[in-house]
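Colleagues,

Please find the record for the two-part complex below.
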Amino acid sequence: MRSAELIELWRGGQRESLHCGDAVVCDTKGVVEAWGRPGTIVFPRSSCKMIQALPLVESGAADAAGLTDRHLALACASHNGARIHVDAVEGWLRALGMAEPDLRCGCHMPRDPDENRRLTCGDEGPSQLHNNCSGKHAGFLTLNRHLRGGAEYVDPGHSVQQAVKAAFEEVTGENSPGFGIDGCSAPNWSCSLAGLGRAMAAFADPPDDTRGRAMRRLVDAMRAHPELVAGEGPACTILMRATGGRVAAKTGAEAVFVAILPNQGLGVALKVTDGATRAAEAAITALLVHLGVLGESDPAVGRFLTDPLRNWRGIPTGEMRTAPGFPA
Amino acid sequence: MRSAELIELWRGGQRESLHCGDAVVCDTKGVVEAWGRPGTIVFPRSSCKMIQALPLVESGAADAAGLTDRHLALACASHNGARIHVDAVEGWLRALGMAEPDLRCGCHMPRDPDENRRLTCGDEGPSQLHNNCSGKHAGFLTLNRHLRGGAEYVDPGHSVQQAVKAAFEEVTGENSPGFGIDGCSAPNWSCSLAGLGRAMAAFADPPDDTRGRAMRRLVDAMRAHPELVAGEGPACTILMRATGGRVAAKTGAEAVFVAILPNQGLGVALKVTDGATRAAEAAITALLVHLGVLGESDPAVGRFLTDPLRNWRGIPTGEMRTAPGFPA
C-alpha cells in the first residue's frame, strides 16, 4: 500500500508541488475512514502531548499540586513563547518550589512576534520557558515531584517517562516499536497512525473510569484555552476557535496533526510524509470540513487551504488544492 | 514512471520523513543520468536566473551600461538582502538614472541576520532592494532601457519578458507549456526537468557564439562572486565555495536546484516534489559528491546532508540519509 496524494500546490494552471501522506478517522473500535496507509509507523511528536499528560492527571499529581485547566492546557501545548505562556509556566514552576534551570527542554527563540522582537532587540537570549514544550515539561516536573523521581526526568528509563510510555501503549493499543529523542529531549514513542487515531478516538469518547476522566479533563482544558495550547497565530488555536470548541486539535513536528471530536466520538490522525507543516495544516483543515465541524466558508479554511497564494506585491500566484480523492 | 525517493530523515532508528523528487545530469546532447521522471514539468523559479539574464548580456545592454561581473552575479542572484546586496543594487539603479520605485519585485524582509535585525529593531520596513530578486530586476531594468520598453517590465507580454521567454525556450530546447507568476512578479516559464538540465549543460559547455560567450560570462560571474549570488549562510554560496569555483549552483523556490559543472561539461537539475528546501539542498549536495566535485568529508556535505540532527540541547536526535539508489 502506498501513501495518498493529499495536498497540491498550483501555479499558472500547472501543479508545481505535491504532498503525500496518510490519514485516518477512527472511533474507539478502530479505523472508520482512511487515506494511504493506516499501518504506517509514525512518531507523533508533539501531537501526543495529551497522552503524555495522562499520568500527570491519573496519578493525582495534578490535583495534589492544585493544577487548573490552564495548567493542563499548557501541559498539552506547543506554545509560541508569548508572555502569556512564559509567565504562566514560570508561575507554575514557582508554585512547585522550582525554577527554569529545573527544566530539561532547552532554549529556542519564541515564534510569538512581540516576544521574539523583544528578545532580538534587547540582546536577550531565550530561556527554557520560551521552549514550545515548557508547559509539558512543567507537567513532567509536577508528576516527578509526586513520584519522587530524580532530576533527569527526560531519561527514557526515568519513572516519569516510563509512566508516559505505559499510558501511550495502552491508549494506542500497541507495543511501541521504539522511541526517538524529541526536540525537547523527551523520548517520543512511535506507533501506527491507526493507533494514534484510535487513541484520539478514546479521548473523544472516553470510558467512565480514572483514565476516561483524565482524558475528558485534558480535552476540555485544551478546548477551553486554545490560546494556551498554541498562541495567537498558530493553526491549533485558529482551528479550535473556528470549530467553536467542538474540536481539540494538536500539531506535531514533521507534519503530524491530530483532532479529537467529542460530539462525534471520533479521532483524526494524519502525517504528511515529507514533514511539511503547510500540508499538515491544509490536510487537517480539509478533514475538519469533511467531518462537518468546520464550515467551508470559514476564514480558517481560507487561511490554511483555499485562499489564493499571493506574492510580495499581493498578486495571486497560485493556490493549494486537496488532491483528487482527498478527503472525498 | 514515478518520482524517486531522494532524501530520508531518521530518528531513533526509524525513518520519520521522506522526500521524493526527480533529478537529471545532462550533457549538451541530453540526459546522461536520471532519477525519477526526467520529463516532469517544473517551474525552475529562481534556479533559471542565469537564463533570464541571457538577453541582458546578448543584447549588448550589459556592456552599454558598463556592467561588471559583480552586476552579472547579482542579476543571477537570490540574495539574502544583506547590506552588500542592497547597496550594490541601489548603486546599479543610480547609475542607470533610476531608483527603488522603478523596481516591480515587491518588498520582503531580508534573511541576512544583521540586516533583518537592523530593520526589525529600528522599526524600518524592507524596501524592494531587499527583495532576493532585486539584482535580477536591476538586470531587467538595464535591458529595458536598452530596448526602450515601458515601465511595467514584468508584464508577460513586455519586450523584456518576451526576450527572456525566447532565450528560455531556445536553451531548454522546448516550447514552454506556459508560465506562472513568480514571487517577484516576473513570469516564470515551465519546462521539463530534462530541458532545464540540458540548459545547464549548455552553460557548462557553451558554443562559440554570442550566446555561448554570454553563458560563459554569467557562469564565471557566479563562480567569482558566490557571496553576491546568495550571501553569507545560504547553500548556493557555501556549495560554490566548497567546490572551489568548479561549480555554479543555484536554488529556486519549491525545492528546485541546478548546478553547472564547466570542467565536466555537465548540467544538473533537480526538483523535490514537495518543495522542501532542506531536501533540495541535501540532494544537490549528494549529487555534487556523486559527480566528484565535492569531497565527502567537506564541511558543506556535513552541513547539508551528513551531520547528525541535534535538538535544542545539542543532543543528536537523528540524521538525514540519501535514499537507497540515490545517487548511487
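The CA atoms of residues 55 and 163 of chain B lie 6 Å apart.

Comments are welcome before we finalize the supplementary table.
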